[in-house]
Prior knowledge:
The chain is mostly helical. It is built from 13 helices and 4 strands. The protein has a single domain (7-261), classed as HUPs (Rossmann fold, 3-Layer(aba) Sandwich), CATH 3.40.50. It has helices at 7-13, 25-43, 56-68, 84-96, 109-119, 124-146, 156-161, 182-191, 196-199, 213-217, 221-232, 237-244, 248-260, and strands spanning 47-51, 72-76, 103-105, 148-150. Mean pLDDT is 91; it is low at 1-12.
Amino acid sequence: MNKSISHKQIMISNPTLKNYLDLDYGKVTDYLVNKLRDYIRDSGKKGGVVGVSGGIDSAVTATLLSRATQNFYFLIMPSNSTPQQDLEDALHLTEMLNGKDKRTIISIDNIVENFSNVVNTRDKLIVGNIKARTRMILLYAFAQKMDYLVIGTGDKSELLLGYFTKYGDGGVDVLPIGDLFKTQVRKLGEYLKLPSRIVSKPSSPALWEGQTAEGELGVSYEVVDPILYLLEKGKGDLEITSELGVNLNLVRRIRTMVERSRHKRLPPEIFKLP
Length: 274
């Protein structure tokens, strides 16, 4: 894998990708805010609740929600694996969005510990998924209490790669930024004038200490996103390798991740009777 290839270099050498990041983020913002406002109204709900982690996806989503409706609510749900900086950034962001009186901070450690004890496990991945699903339960409890929707924070890169917990952070009512790749979400965050340390922060679900998305993927989103973009355009592996100058095995690995996680993006299969 050629880790020296930057996203900028990929963009310059590939005219087919010239519009990949060059979106009109003002128009994107207006569209998403209006779409979210209409979706909440058409659902018959009064507003929306979103989990704020201190990362770029939740920061952008929370900002869009606060512009779409005055009836917004923020949940900050740290655990023992949440970096202190993330908690501080989540608190700062919600205050920046005039949400100091529209937020609840809940440590989920005791809940996660109880679930883990029932299952009798300390497996890092299982406990991590319990954390994600605990947050989903709390979001839906608050949403039901207020007659709100649960607003999801997943982006297109995570959704395509399956980099989310099924019925955890994937358990939501709507995904406003679900058609934006991670690199595009960062650009949108810049446009929205979010704090630079949130925009530039390495993505991480923080389900265990030291976890980073790009560390698990083994490559940066600046390289992954153009591959996903071309896969979605129906390009073949060799064609993508030629266009982007990346390793063929990397392209195949990304394609495999997309294919194997397909079930996570679909509703449960219903076996139709013959």
